[in-house]
């Protein structure tokens, strides 16, 4: 690559990257909006417990708090990996 | 009679809240409305400079709230529009000087004085000043730049508008949300270097009420203390006029969303 090519090189178009990153973080922040402060900690502790039995990562767990008139529902869903569960060390 | 209260807010600083507050208030006044614009940024007063009335501030918002001056004494009459008034922020007190009851009292009194619109220029952040600026709002103008941190912060603000306002708490109907995209650079969008109007609308799930192009006239306007909406020749000024008209119910097409076509000389010599 000659020096002229270097001078002519254009910056990578980064708007698409920005959009994708924002799409993900905004969706995540909306899902926990107005939720109790302990949620992130709850989430990671739950993950530790689940990990003892099934091999999942943080992305696999989603927690939602929904408000109905007067009461709140904490909804937890764990996407299990395909195939079998991790070896169970506890037996 | 109570006034319509519009908060200009964003979360992130430096995106153009005060510029927008000044132009919005001026634009509403130009359409014959009686307008007060209030600086909620206690300790960092700046709206007075942008409105060009910094040397005429005698009493401020905090003085009124603490009963040290009346509203009439504190409102600064705009030099250009007789139905436009500025209420400056205190430069010396800290932000705890604002109280919810105090702010409510001032807003009520302005409503009784026959104001049609009260524009609340919010400080950056989501602390007390920003909270009080949005709390009593009927409408919100959320100012956003096509840039990741600003977009994320404005989503946070949209969430707060839907939960931490008087309307939300009383179940009084939602605060009307308007998204204003500022510092927009169509050439950079075309190069794929900047989020487009459509990108921002998609991410936030709300359509824009206006798009203000990045413009050197904005700095020139603030340099001289004249709201940029009064600069009829600038694209930014015209875009603000369109935005105010849309807020008042007129339908106007979006302008200045495309990069200006480069002429032969520009293509050859750059620029």
From TrEMBL, chain A:
This protein's name: Cell division topological specificity factor
Nucleotide-binding found in the keyword field: no
Chain's gene name: minE
GO BP annotations listed: cell division
Protein family (similarity comment): Belongs to the MinE family.
Species whose genome carries this gene: Dyella flagellata
Function summary: Prevents the cell division inhibition by proteins MinC and MinD at internal division sites while permitting inhibition at polar sites. This ensures cell division at the proper site by restricting the formation of a division septum at the midpoint of the long axis of the cell.
Source species, domain of life: Bacteria
Keyword ATP-binding: no
Keywords in alphabetical order: Cell cycle, Cell division
UniProtKB/TrEMBL annotation, chain B:
Keyword Cell division: yes
Pfam families: CbiA
Listed transmembrane segments: none
Superkingdom assignment: Bacteria
UniProt cross-references to InterPro entries, sorted A to Z: CobQ/CobB/MinD/ParA_Nub-bd_dom (IPR002586), MinD (IPR010223), MinD_FleN (IPR025501), P-loop_NTPase (IPR027417), ParA/MinD_ATPase (IPR050625)
SUPFAM superfamilies, alphabetized: P-loop containing nucleoside triphosphate hydrolases
Keywords on record: ATP-binding, Cell cycle, Cell division, Nucleotide-binding, Septation
Chain ranges of the CobQ/CobB/MinD/ParA nucleotide binding domain: 6-228
Protein role: ATPase required for the correct placement of the division site. Cell division inhibitors MinC and MinD act in concert to form an inhibitor capable of blocking formation of the polar Z ring septums. Rapidly oscillates between the poles of the cell to destabilize FtsZ filaments that have formed before they mature into polar Z rings.
PANTHER family: SEPTUM SITE-DETERMINING PROTEIN MIND HOMOLOG, CHLOROPLASTIC, SEPTUM SITE-DETERMINING PROTEIN MIND HOMOLOG, CHLOROPLASTIC-RELATED
Family per similarity comment: Belongs to the ParA family. MinD subfamily.
Subunit and interaction comment: Interacts with MinC and FtsZ.
Name used for this protein in its record: Septum site-determining protein MinD
Native source species: Dyella flagellata
Gene name of this polypeptide: minD
């Amino acid at each position: 690559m000659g020096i002229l090519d270097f001078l002519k090189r254009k910056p990578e178009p980064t708007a698409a990257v920005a959009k994708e990153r924002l799409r993900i973080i905004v969706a995540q922040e909306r899902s926990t909006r107005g939720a109790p402060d302990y949620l992130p900690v709850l989430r990671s502790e739950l993950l530790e417990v689940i990990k003892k039995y099934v091999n999942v990562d943080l992305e696999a767990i989603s927690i939602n708090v929904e408000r109905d008139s007067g009461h709140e529902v904490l909804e937890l869903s764990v996407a299990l990996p395909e195939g079998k569960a991790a070896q169970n060390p506890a037996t | 009679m109570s006034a319509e209260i519009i908060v200009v807010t964003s979360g992130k600083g430096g995106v153009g809240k005060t510029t927008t507050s000044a132009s919005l208030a001026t634009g509403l006044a130009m359409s014959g409305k009686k307008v007060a614009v209030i600086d909620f940024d206690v300790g960092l007063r700046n709206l007075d400079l942008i409105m060009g009335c910094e040397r005429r501030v005698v009493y401020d918002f905090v003085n009124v709230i603490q009963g040290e001056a009346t509203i009439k004494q504190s409102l600064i009459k705009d030099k250009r529009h007789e139905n436009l008034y500025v209420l400056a922020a205190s430069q010396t007190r800290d932000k705890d000087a604002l109280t919810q009851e105090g702010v409510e009292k001032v807003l009520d009194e302005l409503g009784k004085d026959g104001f049609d619109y009260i524009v609340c220029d919010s400080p950056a952040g989501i602390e007390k000043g920003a909270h009080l600026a949005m709390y009593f709002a009927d409408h919100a103008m959320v100012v956003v730049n096509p840039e990741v941190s600003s977009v994320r912060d404005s989503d946070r603000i949209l969430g707060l508008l839907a939960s931490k306002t008087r309307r939300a708490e009383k179940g009084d109907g939602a605060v009307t949300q308007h998204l204003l995209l500022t510092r927009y650079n169509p050439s950079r969008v075309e190069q794929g270097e900047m989020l487009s109007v459509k990108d921002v609308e998609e991410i936030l799930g709300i359509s824009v009420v206006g798009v203000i192009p990045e413009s050197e006239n904005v700095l020139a306007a603030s340099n001289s203390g004249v709201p940029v909406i009064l600069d009829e020749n600038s694209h930014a000024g015209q875009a603000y006029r369109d935005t105010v008209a849309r807020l008042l119910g007129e339908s106007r097409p979006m302008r200045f969303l495309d990069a200006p076509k480069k002429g032969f000389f520009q293509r050859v010599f750059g620029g």
